[in-house]
Amino acid sequence: MQTEFNVTGEYYLTGVHEMASGFKINDDNTFNFFFMYGALDRYGSGCWKKVGNKVIFQSEKWKGSDFKLFGSEKTCSDNIMVEIHSENKILLQYVFASLENGKEGSWRPASKDGMIVFEKTEISKVNLAMEFCPERFSSIRIENSNHNHFKFNFEPWVFEYFFNNFCLTFERNTLTGKHPLIGNQDFLFIKH
User: Fold this and answer.
1) What residue ranges define each of the domains in the chain, with the CATH number in brackets?
2) Assign residue 164 a region: left if phi > 0, alpha if psi is -120 to 50, beta otherwise?
3) What does pTM read for this prediction?
4) Averaged pLDDT for residues 161-177
5) From CA 135, how far away is CA 128, in angstroms rounded?
6) Residue 94: how many CA atoms within 13 Å on its side-chain side?
7) Is residue 4's pLDDT more than 80?
8) Distances from the Cα of 123 to the Cαs of 67, 102, 126, 137, in angstroms?
9) Is the pLDDT of residue 90 over 70?
10) What distance lies between CA 155 and its chain's CA centroid?
11) What's the whole-number average pLDDT of the chain?
12) CA quadruple 65, 70, 74, 78: dihedral sign
């Protein structure tokens, strides 16, 4: 016979050094998630439900792209140039681009100033990925195929993690299961 349990509260990841992560599970069936490792901060939110002793987390659907094309032009260069813009210049060097739909071996890193250069080719999409968000990449359709210089910036949600039926097991004020962002082993979150 399954007994009722109160899962609401704050749960913090334990047993992992130099990293902080946790869930705040609210009475109104919403939750907030955080992850901090060095200078990297990721976050998430959404709704939760319980099924037996399982807690299932669901976010709004990812909007489909973490980057926005804000300009393109035809230049005299024979190369294809992808340029990333951000107020935080440190982030620029952690962006990768592919013109081959993300095919393995086709990704190129941005320089410290956010520039990625490809040899001349036909182009219909630019695929972009942020190193700190390896669970997804963005594919942006190019409308003006005669242009060769494309300018992108980050969408505000680039560091948000989107939960999709993510499940943890509740038992005696703990949550156990996979972490959404690290490793493939089980982790323990303890209620405080």
Assistant:
1) 9-58+160-191 (2.40.128.640), 67-154 (2.60.40)
2) beta
3) 0.89
4) 97
5) 12
6) 14
7) no
8) 17, 13, 8, 17
9) yes
10) 11
11) 94
12) negative
User: Is the confidence at residue 1, as pLDDT, over 50?
Assistant: no
Q: Are 168 and 25 in contact (CB under 8 A)?
A: no
pLDDT tens digits, 106-152: 999 999 999 999 999 989 999 999 999 999 999 999 999 899 999 99
Find where tokens 């242009």 sit: 147
CA 42/CA 147 separation, integer angstroms: 34
| Alpha-carbon span 55 to 175, nearest angstrom | 8
HSE-up of residue 81 (Cα within 13 Å, Cβ side) = 17
Q: Which residue has the tokens 């990333």?
A: 84
| Angstrom distance (rounded) from CA 30 to CA 26 | 5
Q: At which residue do the structure tokens 């250069």 appear?
A: 117
